[in-house]
Design brief:
By secondary structure, this protein is α+β, with helices and mostly antiparallel strands. The chain has helices at 32-49, 54-58, 133-146; strands at 2-4, 7-9, 12-18, 61-72, 81-91, 95-104, 110-122, 127-128. The chain contains three helices and eight strands. The longest helix is centred in the N-terminal third of the chain and has 18 residues, at 32-49.
Protein backbone atom coordinates (compact mmCIF):
# COMPACT_ATOMS: atom_id res chain seq x y z
CA UNK A 1 0.00 0.00 0.00
CA UNK A 2 1.26 3.49 -0.80
CA UNK A 3 -0.06 6.99 -0.27
CA UNK A 4 0.17 9.41 -3.18
CA UNK A 5 -1.17 12.97 -2.76
CA UNK A 6 -3.44 11.94 0.12
CA UNK A 7 -4.86 9.06 -1.96
CA UNK A 8 -4.34 5.55 -0.66
CA UNK A 9 -3.33 3.14 -3.42
CA UNK A 10 -4.06 -0.29 -1.96
CA UNK A 11 -2.27 -3.45 -3.03
CA UNK A 12 1.00 -3.59 -4.90
CA UNK A 13 1.27 -2.24 -8.41
CA UNK A 14 1.33 -4.94 -11.06
CA UNK A 15 0.22 -3.38 -14.40
CA UNK A 16 0.07 0.06 -16.06
CA UNK A 17 -1.60 1.03 -19.30
CA UNK A 18 -3.74 3.52 -21.22
CA UNK A 19 -7.34 3.20 -22.37
CA UNK A 20 -7.13 2.43 -26.10
CA UNK A 21 -9.46 3.83 -28.76
CA UNK A 22 -10.85 0.37 -29.52
CA UNK A 23 -11.80 -0.01 -25.84
CA UNK A 24 -14.30 2.88 -25.97
CA UNK A 25 -17.96 1.87 -26.27
CA UNK A 26 -21.06 3.72 -27.51
CA UNK A 27 -21.32 5.48 -24.13
CA UNK A 28 -17.91 7.10 -24.59
CA UNK A 29 -16.14 5.19 -21.84
CA UNK A 30 -14.14 1.98 -21.41
CA UNK A 31 -16.18 -1.12 -22.30
CA UNK A 32 -16.86 -3.86 -19.75
CA UNK A 33 -15.01 -6.50 -21.79
CA UNK A 34 -11.88 -4.37 -21.80
CA UNK A 35 -11.90 -3.92 -18.04
CA UNK A 36 -11.84 -7.72 -17.89
CA UNK A 37 -9.00 -7.78 -20.44
CA UNK A 38 -6.97 -5.29 -18.38
CA UNK A 39 -7.63 -7.19 -15.15
CA UNK A 40 -6.69 -10.46 -16.86
CA UNK A 41 -3.30 -8.93 -17.65
CA UNK A 42 -2.84 -8.45 -13.88
CA UNK A 43 -3.79 -12.08 -13.22
CA UNK A 44 -1.31 -13.24 -15.89
CA UNK A 45 1.45 -10.97 -14.53
CA UNK A 46 1.01 -12.37 -11.01
CA UNK A 47 0.88 -15.91 -12.39
CA UNK A 48 4.18 -15.28 -14.20
CA UNK A 49 5.70 -13.83 -11.01
CA UNK A 50 4.78 -17.15 -9.39
CA UNK A 51 6.73 -18.96 -12.12
CA UNK A 52 3.67 -20.14 -14.05
CA UNK A 53 4.98 -18.95 -17.42
CA UNK A 54 5.04 -20.39 -20.95
CA UNK A 55 7.85 -22.83 -20.06
CA UNK A 56 5.97 -24.03 -16.97
CA UNK A 57 2.76 -24.47 -18.99
CA UNK A 58 4.60 -26.41 -21.73
CA UNK A 59 5.47 -28.97 -19.01
CA UNK A 60 1.79 -29.74 -18.42
CA UNK A 61 0.46 -27.45 -15.68
CA UNK A 62 -1.37 -24.13 -15.77
CA UNK A 63 -4.09 -22.17 -14.02
CA UNK A 64 -7.76 -21.88 -14.97
CA UNK A 65 -10.01 -19.00 -13.97
CA UNK A 66 -13.07 -20.35 -12.17
CA UNK A 67 -14.77 -17.18 -10.92
CA UNK A 68 -14.57 -13.41 -11.35
CA UNK A 69 -16.55 -10.51 -9.92
CA UNK A 70 -16.02 -6.92 -11.08
CA UNK A 71 -17.28 -3.62 -9.71
CA UNK A 72 -17.26 -0.28 -11.45
CA UNK A 73 -16.62 2.81 -9.34
CA UNK A 74 -15.86 5.62 -11.84
CA UNK A 75 -15.44 5.89 -15.58
CA UNK A 76 -12.24 5.70 -17.57
CA UNK A 77 -12.24 7.35 -21.01
CA UNK A 78 -10.02 7.49 -24.09
CA UNK A 79 -6.29 7.69 -23.35
CA UNK A 80 -6.78 7.71 -19.57
CA UNK A 81 -3.72 6.20 -17.89
CA UNK A 82 -4.50 3.45 -15.41
CA UNK A 83 -2.62 1.35 -12.93
CA UNK A 84 -3.72 -1.96 -11.49
CA UNK A 85 -2.73 -3.20 -8.07
CA UNK A 86 -3.13 -6.70 -6.74
CA UNK A 87 -3.64 -8.25 -3.35
CA UNK A 88 -3.63 -11.93 -2.49
CA UNK A 89 -6.67 -12.57 -0.30
CA UNK A 90 -5.84 -16.23 0.17
CA UNK A 91 -4.35 -19.34 -1.34
CA UNK A 92 -4.51 -23.06 -0.79
CA UNK A 93 -2.54 -26.03 -2.07
CA UNK A 94 -4.53 -25.81 -5.33
CA UNK A 95 -6.02 -22.32 -5.68
CA UNK A 96 -5.50 -18.58 -5.51
CA UNK A 97 -7.96 -15.85 -4.46
CA UNK A 98 -6.76 -12.52 -5.92
CA UNK A 99 -8.16 -9.00 -5.65
CA UNK A 100 -7.24 -6.28 -8.16
CA UNK A 101 -7.96 -2.57 -8.14
CA UNK A 102 -7.78 -0.27 -11.16
CA UNK A 103 -6.94 3.36 -10.49
CA UNK A 104 -6.77 6.37 -12.79
CA UNK A 105 -2.98 6.73 -12.77
CA UNK A 106 -2.98 10.56 -12.66
CA UNK A 107 -6.18 11.56 -10.86
CA UNK A 108 -5.67 8.57 -8.52
CA UNK A 109 -9.31 7.60 -8.14
CA UNK A 110 -10.49 4.01 -7.89
CA UNK A 111 -12.15 3.16 -11.21
CA UNK A 112 -12.89 -0.56 -10.88
CA UNK A 113 -12.16 -3.73 -8.92
CA UNK A 114 -11.95 -7.39 -9.90
CA UNK A 115 -11.93 -10.33 -7.54
CA UNK A 116 -10.91 -13.65 -9.05
CA UNK A 117 -10.37 -17.27 -8.16
CA UNK A 118 -7.97 -19.45 -10.13
CA UNK A 119 -7.10 -23.10 -9.71
CA UNK A 120 -3.87 -24.92 -10.50
CA UNK A 121 -4.50 -27.52 -13.22
CA UNK A 122 -2.78 -30.67 -14.46
CA UNK A 123 -3.31 -30.33 -18.23
CA UNK A 124 -2.78 -34.05 -18.85
CA UNK A 125 -5.75 -34.97 -16.67
CA UNK A 126 -7.48 -31.58 -16.94
CA UNK A 127 -8.06 -31.68 -13.21
CA UNK A 128 -7.14 -29.58 -10.21
CA UNK A 129 -3.65 -30.39 -8.92
CA UNK A 130 -1.48 -29.12 -6.04
CA UNK A 131 0.91 -26.24 -6.66
CA UNK A 132 4.56 -27.33 -6.66
CA UNK A 133 6.47 -26.38 -3.50
CA UNK A 134 8.39 -23.60 -5.30
CA UNK A 135 5.13 -21.88 -6.30
CA UNK A 136 3.80 -22.15 -2.74
CA UNK A 137 7.09 -20.59 -1.54
CA UNK A 138 6.58 -17.69 -3.97
CA UNK A 139 2.98 -17.27 -2.78
CA UNK A 140 4.27 -17.20 0.81
CA UNK A 141 6.86 -14.57 -0.13
CA UNK A 142 4.33 -12.31 -1.89
CA UNK A 143 1.86 -12.67 0.99
CA UNK A 144 4.60 -11.62 3.44
CA UNK A 145 5.64 -8.74 1.14
CA UNK A 146 2.09 -7.38 0.98
CA UNK A 147 1.74 -7.58 4.74
CA UNK A 148 -1.56 -7.56 6.59
CA UNK A 149 -3.65 -5.35 4.36
CA UNK A 150 -7.32 -5.15 5.31
CA UNK A 151 -9.81 -7.15 3.31
CA UNK A 152 -11.16 -4.94 0.50
CA UNK A 153 -14.66 -3.57 1.05
CA UNK A 154 -15.69 -4.80 -2.41
CA UNK A 155 -14.45 -8.38 -1.87
CA UNK A 156 -17.09 -11.09 -1.62
CA UNK A 157 -19.93 -8.80 -2.62
CA UNK A 158 -23.26 -10.19 -3.69
CA UNK A 159 -25.12 -8.82 -6.70
CA UNK A 160 -28.54 -7.49 -5.72
CA UNK A 161 -30.95 -4.64 -6.31
CA UNK A 162 -31.81 -2.28 -3.46
CA UNK A 163 -35.57 -2.21 -4.02
CA UNK A 164 -36.50 -4.91 -6.54
CA UNK A 165 -39.95 -4.94 -8.10
CA UNK A 166 -39.37 -8.63 -8.82
CA UNK A 167 -36.98 -11.03 -7.10
CA UNK A 168 -36.57 -14.75 -7.71
CA UNK A 169 -36.61 -16.65 -4.45
CA UNK A 170 -33.44 -18.53 -3.65
CA UNK A 171 -33.95 -22.20 -2.85
CA UNK A 172 -31.23 -24.59 -1.77
CA UNK A 173 -31.42 -28.32 -2.25
Amino acid sequence: MSVVADTVIEGFEIVRGHVAKEWIDVNGHMNVANYLEAFDSAVVTLRERLGVNDDYISKGHTTFAVECHMTYQRELTLDDPYLITTQILGYSRTGLHQFNRMYHAEALYLASTAESMTLHIDLGERKVAPWPDEVVARLDSIAREQGRMPRPRQAGRQIRLKNPLFLTEVTRT
